[in-house]
Amino acid sequence: MENKKGARTRGRRKNKWMFVMLWVLICTVCALLISFFAINAVNDILGFGKPDSIKEITVDRGMNIKEIASLLKSEGVIEQPGTFILYSKFRNRNGIIQAGDYVLNSNMGYDTIISAMQKGNNEKEVVKLTFYEGMSALDIANRLEKEGVCKKDEFLNIIDTENFGYEFENMIPDDKLRFRNLEGYLFPDTYEFFINENPYSVAKKFVKNFNEKVFRPLYDDIRNFGMTLDQAVTLASVIQKEASLKDEMYKVSSVFHNRLDNPSANLPMLQSDVTIDYVEDDIKPFHTMKNQEMYDAYNTYVCEGLPKGPICSPGIEAIKAAISPEETDYYYFVTDANGKYYYSKTFEEHNKNVRIASSVKKSK
């Protein structure tokens, strides 16, 4: 009887110690989790240890603090939306947040984020600018600086170094001979900017518009035609500079495609004068040292096939023409002083057209 009673006593003690150990373990885990959450919350509140990453967000009219916190979380500006909501109320920062576009940084603290959005953009001067088909990145940058939107060099640096998070950006070739990374992808359109706007925000408006008006609706057509996105945009940029009229774009496209698709015709080069203009007017002024290899990669009298990248921002019609050329046997074209196009199948016919076009005087 005593042995059995002792065994029961030892069993109860063992169970008691196991319960105590389990309870200590649970308390320790909970303490660690609370500490981990508290540390992360403090870091998120103060912006400590967070990456330096620019984020552009749009706060719609009527959004409440919960919706804004969710937006900031989804865009990577904050990590803990619940903490953001509590902090806003605790610090009495739950005031009116202005609707509008904001350029924030993921390393900002909560106070900075909230202050920026409560201040709003209401006092900033707005300018509306139209950028036309055929403008190069340099043309666009010059216009932006002239109108006081942002500095030319800062804008050009942004489009050469930043990634805006769109799928099509990963389709742009990484090539040392490519002059401007996003040349051709700054969609020509009418935009509204703030005076002295952040150049990242300015550039993203162009890139976002390209994604919505070109990439999403046309990429499947480009791929089905058998071209890469960059090939289509590059060819479209040359077509845009060679033919401003819609009816001519599809014929000009046929000339270039006939040269690209029929190497047996002994015409492997596009021989487009506008690519030389791009080298002279856009590339060379930015090079303190001669870079003949890059010049040749864009000069279609030297390189075979397409230039290394786009030479301007093409419009929708030029992109459609690049993937839907008219069916012709033309390999040459020339224009006269009045913009009339002369197409030909042979070099002999082309020379004849050149003489005719050269004799035409410009109409007054």
Write the layout of secondary structure elements.
Layout: H1 2-46, E1 54-59, H2 65-74, H3 81-90, E2 100-105, H4 110-119, E3 126-130, H5 137-146, H6 152-161, E4 190-194, H7 199-225, H8 229-242, H9 246-261, H10 273-283, H11 292-298, H12 316-323, E5 332-335, E6 341-344, H13 347-359
What does this structure look like?
The chain has helices spanning 2-46, 65-74, 81-90, 110-119, 137-146, 152-161, 199-225, 229-242, 246-261, 273-283, 292-298, 316-323, 347-359, and strands at 54-59, 100-105, 126-130, 190-194, 332-335, 341-344. With 364 residues, it is mainly alpha-helical. The chain is elongated. The chain starts with a helix and ends in a 5-residue tail after the last helix.
Q: What characteristic shape results from the CA principal axes? A: elongated
* Intertermini distance: 127 Å
How many helical elements? 13
Biggest sheet: strand arrangement: 1-2
* Low-confidence spans: none
Report Rg.
31 Å
Number of strands: 6
Helicity range of the residues?
Answer: 40-55%
Judged by helices, strands and strand pairing, the structural class is mainly alpha
Largest sheet: 2 strands, antiparallel
- The overall pLDDT, averaged over residues, is 86
| Strand proportion | 5-15%
Quaternary assembly: single chain
Q: What is the string of helix and strand elements?
A: HEHHEHEHHEHHHHHHEEH
